[in-house]
Design brief:
By secondary structure, this protein is mainly α. It contains 3 helices and no strands. It is rod-shaped.
């Protein structure tokens, strides 16, 4: 976000918006990574609530 501010100050508005929009995806990926580390992955299906009939 600091880089976006610097770009805005030097009148590079398009680049400032482009760089400024990176914050949200990085925060979302960080939250996802933290959840996976805390709760583990269920990719193997052993912890799934769905059972075969």
């Amino acid at each position: 976000m600091a880089a976006s501010l610097v770009l805005k100050i030097v009148k590079q508005n398009h680049w400032a918006l482009f760089v400024g929009q990176w914050a949200a995806p990085f925060l979302i990926m960080g939250n996802y990574n933290q959840l996976v580390k805390q709760h583990g992955s269920v990719a193997d299906g052993s912890h799934s609530t769905l059972r075969a009939a």
